[in-house]
Each structure stands twice: as C-alpha cells, then as structure tokens.
Design the sequence.
C-alpha cells in the first residue's frame, strides 16, 4: 500500500514545546513578547515552559521510539541559535542542543526533517520591521546558511518557512498571532511577498553552496484546505472556489511551482478591489524583482499541511474596506455532514486530503509530496482512549493510500501533528493535538501515549512489515 521508503513521522515546533524561553543565552522571539501581553492568548498562557523539551528532550525521544517513527519534524528556534537574529552572535548552547537532538535521532534510526522558521521571529528583527521589511529576506538567508553549514551534514530534509499564509494573515491582518498587527488588506501581502523572497534566497543558497556535498532537499510548508463549490455545476460557486484557491494555496504555490509569479486571478481580484474602493497607491500585491533570485523552481518537493475542507460560494459583495476577505469575495460553508473535532474550524474530512493531493498533482506538475502536518484536536475533558482520533488517523491514512495507488500521486511521507500536546498558539494549552498527552499540571510534565498513538504505531509497524 505504501512504498518501503515511505516517511512515517510526527511533528512539533520549537515555541510550542521547548520552553526554556530565556535559558542559556536564548534571545526573545515575537511569541515570547506576544504571550507576555495580557489578553493575547487563552487564559494568558504562554510557552515559557511548554513541554520543557529543552530539558526533557530524552523523554520526547522515548515517545518517538515508542511510535516507531522513521522521521521526526522539528523546528529550530532562530532566537535560540542567534539571539539577535544575526550571525554576529552565535549561542553555542543552542547549537549544542540541536546537535544533540539531531544526533540522538540519527542514532535511533530516525531521520530529522528540520524547519528553519515556525512562527517565532527573533524580537530583535521584529523591532527592525520584521517580515514587513524588505531586508528581512537577506537576514533569513544568512540564518539559513548558518543552519545548512552547522547541521546540513546530517539533515537531508529542510523546510524553510512553515505556513507563510498563517504568518501573514493571522499575524498581520487579523492580529491574533504574533506580532499581533492588524493592518488589513496591506501588510499580509507584503509579509507573504518577503517570505517568498526569503525562501527563494535560502533555496538558491542551498543549491549553490551545499547541495552537491550535503545532498539534501529543501521546500516550504504550504497550508491549504480542500475547497469545492457549494453547489456542484454552479458557475458562480466554481468561480468563487477558483478565486479562493488562488488567494490561499495559489498565493504561495503558484510562484514556486508554476510561473514564478502570483496567480493572475489573485492580482486582478486585489487590483479590482483597490480600484473599487479608491485606493490609489501601487498594487497592494507586490511584484518580484528581476534582480533577485527567481522564485520558480525553488522547492525540491511539495510540503503540505492539511487539516480540513470547506464548500465555497460567492461572497456578499466586496465590502467597504480593504481586507483580504473583501479581496477574496467568497464565503466558506461547512457541510453539516462533516463532524467537528474540538476547535470550531476543524471539520473532519479525510477524503478532502485525497482530493487536494490529486489537485496538487494535476496543478503543480506532479511533484513529490510530503504531508508535513495533519491532525485532530481534542478539547474539554481529557480522553486518553481517544477513539475518534484513532479512527481519524485510520481513515486519513487510507485516503493517502488511495491517492498513491489509485490517483498516482507521488506521496513520499506523512507527518502527524503532533507528537505531543503542546502550546497551541492563541488557544494556549486548551486544545490538544498530541499522540502523547502531556500533563501540564505535573511538575515532571509526564508524557502518556493516547490510544491514537498506539494505533498509529500499529499502522506504521504493519506498513514497515509490508502487510498493509
């Protein structure tokens, strides 16, 4: 059912699990700052301690070994390695920590997939304009080269930036993620643009200076829901769905995989709305410079984060103010037959992943695909025997198998989100995605495997033994 070299993984991110927020010379990140402001996060919780993986890495490794994972996705804390964001000052304690993590994984026959940026910009760089500043791209490139140089002899799968869409929209349009800016219709497009520039520079640096010797692969993790017209065959709904896809998945995948530029639907929608509202500045969607490294072709595989699906119908007209929502002019609809797990946005639609994988194959030139995040949340009373989540993983992995066998999608790996219950951004610790429960009331932060973890481990073992 799955290729013998299929990557079976689980993922985490530095701010969500590490803790040690100012231990051993680490600098502050934008999430440290954001969480320490009142009213930003559920219950004013923060990641100061998190799962304390900075001190309890061996416990995490035991969890990874119990699952029988072949791969583990982690992210590096930029501010732990380079406290002010630049290579002027390297924090050797941070380097030692990640060296140990990587070496321990390899000694356990687990391959690391390493994300350079998972939402946690050094505060020192935010103070200079953060992702809105054009200069951030070269800063990121320097950081990336430092990481390739330091860890690339052992790391063969790299993600430059995790979910640029989320960083741009939630951090700079909605203001519900760090850095908490609300500059609708303007800042998010600029941030997304600079993230693409940063990613492309880092990919070209790897390609020019490290690939020949290190023989790794580099991509960026793009999140997308599966979207389909609310009414099959309805032209208005089909058009709205195409526009919605262009302004979400297409925003980042189109420049990297198709043309080197944004989808035409996206630019024309944004420019038409600007005109309608009398916005007279230059296009709110920036243009790529011919003097910079090309964006097209800067991914060695397609890294997909998938959680849910939506039906789409036209919006209620374009709104009276500039915003991403009014540019999109399309409305999401939940199919009432889809169960909701935990958080209100997370409708459980395993078959949507298969549809999205087919779409990626057909639209983006049949790339190799790693599903770099996919998961099921739990809220309220703890359920260690989490039957719905166990069923979700079985159903989802079956859909991935169908995508490989019946649709010919070149899926290379699947990473469950997440290895551990952790700090779930603005939701704090109220939402649990882990294959292992972490008891945040316990001073030792005890890890306990959920039933879904046991089931996932069985599925992995079965596939390794070629019985699936």
Sequence:
């Amino acid at each position: 059912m799955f290729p013998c070299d299929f990557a079976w993984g689980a993922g985490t991110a530095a701010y969500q699990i590490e803790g040690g927020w100012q231990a051993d010379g680490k600098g502050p990140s934008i999430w440290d700052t954001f969480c320490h402001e009142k009213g930003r996060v559920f219950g004013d919780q923060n990641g100061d301690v998190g799962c304390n993986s900075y001190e309890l890495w061996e416990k995490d490794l035991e969890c990874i070994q119990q699952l029988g994972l072949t791969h583990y996705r982690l992210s590096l804390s930029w501010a732990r390695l380079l406290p002010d964001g630049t290579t002027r000052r390297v924090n050797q304690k941070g380097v030692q920590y990640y060296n140990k993590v990587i070496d321990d994984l390899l000694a356990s026959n687990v391959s690391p997939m390493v994300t350079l940026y998972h939402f946690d910009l050094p505060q020192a760089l935010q103070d200079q304009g953060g992702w809105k500043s054009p200069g951030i791209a070269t800063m990121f490139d320097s950081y990336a080269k430092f990481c390739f140089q330091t860890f690339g002899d052992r790391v063969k799968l790299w993600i430059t930036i995790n979910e640029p869409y989320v960083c741009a929209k939630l951090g700079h349009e909605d203001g519900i993620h760090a850095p908490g800016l609300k500059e609708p219709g303007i800042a998010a497009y600029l941030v997304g643009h600079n993230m693409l520039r940063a990613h492309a520079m880092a990919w070209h640096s790897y390609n020019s200076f490290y690939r020949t010797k290190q023989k790794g692969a580099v991509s960026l993790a793009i999140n997308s829901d599966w979207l389909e017209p609310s009414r099959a065959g309805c032209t208005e709904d089909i058009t709205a769905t195409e526009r919605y896809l262009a302004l979400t998945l297409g925003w980042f995948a189109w420049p990297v995989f198709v043309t080197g530029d944004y989808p035409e639907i996206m630019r024309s929608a944004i420019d038409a709305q600007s005109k309608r509202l009398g916005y007279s500045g230059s296009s709110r969607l920036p243009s790529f410079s011919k003097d910079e490294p090309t964006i097209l072709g800067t991914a060695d595989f397609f890294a997909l984060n998938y959680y849910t699906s939506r039906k789409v119908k036209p919006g209620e007209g374009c709104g009276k103010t500039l915003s991403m929502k009014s540019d999109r002019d399309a409305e999401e609809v939940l199919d009432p037959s889809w169960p909701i797990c935990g958080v209100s946005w997370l409708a459980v639609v395993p078959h949507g992943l298969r549809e999205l994988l087919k779409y990626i194959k057909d639209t983006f030139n049949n790339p190799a695909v790693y599903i770099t995040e996919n998961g099921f949340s739990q809220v309220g009373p703890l359920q260690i025997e989490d039957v719905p989540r166990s069923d979700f993983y079985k159903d989802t992995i079956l859909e991935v198998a169908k995508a490989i066998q019946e649709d010919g999608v070149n899926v290379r790996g699947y990473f469950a989100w997440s290895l551990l219950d952790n700090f779930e951004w603005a939701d704090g610790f109220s939402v649990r995605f882990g294959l292992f429960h972490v008891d945040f009331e316990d001073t030792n932060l005890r890890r306990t495997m959920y039933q879904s973890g046991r089931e996932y481990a069985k599925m992995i073992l079965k596939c390794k033994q070629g019985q699936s």
